[in-house]
Amino acid sequence: PTRRSSGLRALWVREGWRLDAHARAGIQTNLNTARQRWISALQQEQPRAPRAHLELLADAVMALVDHRMSLAAGATRGSSPLLDAAVLRVAAVSPSDPPSAVSTGGVGLQSTAQPLFVSKRESAINAAMRLFGEYGYAAVTMSAIAKESSVSRPTLYAIFPSKISVLRQITDRSYHVFWSMLHSLYTSTSDASTLIGGTIEAYIDLARSQPYIVRFVQFEREADSMLNVRQQEYITEVATVLCTVNPHLTSYQADVLVRATVAVVNDVCASDTHGQAASQDLMRVCLAVLDIGG
Length: 294
Fold this sequence. Notes:
This protein is mostly helical. The protein has 13 helices and no strands. The chain has helices at 8-15, 21-45, 51-73, 80-91, 120-135, 142-149, 153-159, 163-188, 192-209, 211-219, 225-245, 251-270, 279-289. Helix 5 packs across helix 6 and helix 8 (163-188) packs antiparallel against helix 9.
């Protein structure tokens, strides 16, 4: 990887589609083998832990290792010991841990019912979201969106004059509820623990409900500079709050841990093996990454 935003897994997601089926299968086998090694190592530390819990921890640890490598590739200094310590904290999270004292404030995103009728605009947006998330923004054409959505090219261009207009519609819609919730949360309380817990809960909900758009934003932030700026503003805000909860952290360290937490949530929620029942365990994993005691 050559950019801070890309680690090995990010590179696989961004570029793996270019390979033929045989090559993809081989790389996926290697990734699964690496995952199994982590599961086996974690099982030695927690022999009584359920398989599902070990898989959750393994995916979280792999996300942290990937994030550590991406920071190293970007010549960012001082992050390795910080993330190594986070890996050890995550590996120690057991399924029998009590719920954390950090409150979420009950601010999770509200799910919305799917409409019975889907317009051509909605069909195009949904198709583009899937394609952008799977193949990356640069690799997707308007023709591909038209084909995926079963909308004719002339109709698609009548709705969206360009690919960037599709992208902005997706990102604005997908993140509107999330950012609105964060604004309400951060203006309704000054309790740092509640802010941290509520933010984690909301982002977990977003990653579960909008996996394609979350993956797209994770790997393709350069496609829309305004989205990148807005995301950085919220990361900085959360990092500032984290410094209040964890005074021994510097602003740089807090920023690294917040980004690492985002990477963990993204990777764990992208896995089909984790269901809604794992949300509380994932919350504890996130708090462990942030070095907040349970």
